[in-house]
Amino acid sequence: MKIVEAHLVQLAAVIETGGVTEAAAMLGMTQSAVSRTLSILEKRIGEPLFVSGRRPMQPTPLGEQLGQQGKVILASSRKAMEIIRSFKSGSSGRVRIGGVPFFMDAVVSPMIASFQRGEPGIMVHQSYGNYPDLVAELDSGQIDLAVTPTGSVDLRADLHFEPILTARNVLTCGAGHPLVRKRNLTTEDIVNYPWIAPLPGSPLVLDLHNILLTLGLAEVSLRYAGGSLLSVVNYLAGTDALAILPHSVVHAFRGENKISIIPLDIPQPERVLGVMTRKKPYSNPAGRKFVGHIRREFAELRRAVEKHEKTIQWVQGPFMGERERILSAD
User: Which residue ranges does the record assign to the HTH lysR-type domain (predicted)?
Assistant: First the structure.
């Protein structure tokens, strides 16, 4: 004997509402269709499902037990509909985001936290990678979006890239470093201190190389390499080392009094940070909502970093053109 699950759902609805008419209204069916279902069930089972003549309708012991099974199916159906509504509204689901390590740790992870305070039903999975890795992960469907810096020559036609922040690097050191307040910087000032090497594959590797070319240097003394963002910050705070970091990353640590910016106007990269996605992604309303949040957060960050930049007295040392440019504070 095979029992149709939909018949059990209708039985449960009649028991719950106490009548065929009420159950039909609840299920969006006709009264005759529900009555027909009860008749089919009783004939197939060979036993009555309701006590005759009772109003509201009272199930027999067998009807009660079968109704419990229908109730489970009905609850699952309602839950499934709620899941569908929640997904389509972007209030539930999963977002998989990848990005370059330092930006993800310093800038994006706080944005994820602020997003989930308002959207607790959305799971966010964060991973790390540089541009080639992120492109491969987008291609394979491992991530939904990437936050990455890139230049225009790198962009692929099948990927969508939305710029959200101009790349801006700064020369960084520990708070209280002797170079922070020195106005007449020389090449020797840069050479005489050890450096932290950028992570392998990071665009900062090329940026450091370009800075050395501008200074006319073949190399600097690299004393520390391979650390996470937190370890780099702690290393800077505990030594006299120097490092090249994105301004937005340094800005994220402004209240901790661990690292400072040496106000040297260094060569800047020709690239921007942006959100990269496939041009034809699968439907993910939660992902679209998350991208909107990231867009708004970066707009605020951009204004804050630009305002901070204007308060710094940027210096071009004699090795960079025999002139000095001072940006007045706001």
Answer: 1-60
Number of Cβ within a 10 Å radius of residue 179 = 18
The whole-number average pLDDT for the span 309-318 is: 78
State the Cα–Cα distance between residues 278 and 201, nearest whole angstrom. 23
In the CATH scheme, what is the code of domain 169-269+310-320? 3.40.190.10
Measured on CA atoms in the order 29, 32, 33, 34, is the torsion positive or negative?
positive
Question: Quick one: 271 exposed, middle or buried, by C-beta within 10 A (0-12, 13-18, 19+)?
Answer: buried
Q: What is the pLDDT of residues 173-229, one digit of tens each?
A: 999 899 988 878 777 888 889 999 999 888 899 888 888 888 777 788 899 999 899
User: Can you give the pLDDT at residue 153?
Assistant: 56
Mean predicted lDDT score pLDDT of the chain = 89
Q: Is 93-167+271-304 CATH 3.40.190.10?
A: yes
Do 290 and 95 touch, CB atoms closer than 8 A?
Answer: yes
What's the confidence (pLDDT) of residue 291? Answer: 94
Selecting from 3.30.70.100, 3.40.50.2000, 3.40.50.150, 1.10.10.10, what CATH number does the domain 5-89 have? Answer: 1.10.10.10
- Cα 115 from Cα 71, distance rounded (Å): 36
Q: Would the CA dihedral through 99, 101, 104, 109 be positive or negative?
A: positive
Scanning the chain, the segments in alpha helix (DSSP H) are 5-17, 20-27, 31-45, 61-89, 101-103, 109-118, 131-140, 187-191, 203-215, 229-238, 247-251, 285-310
CA atoms of 267 and 317, how far apart (whole Å):
12
Indicate the pTM of the whole model.
0.77
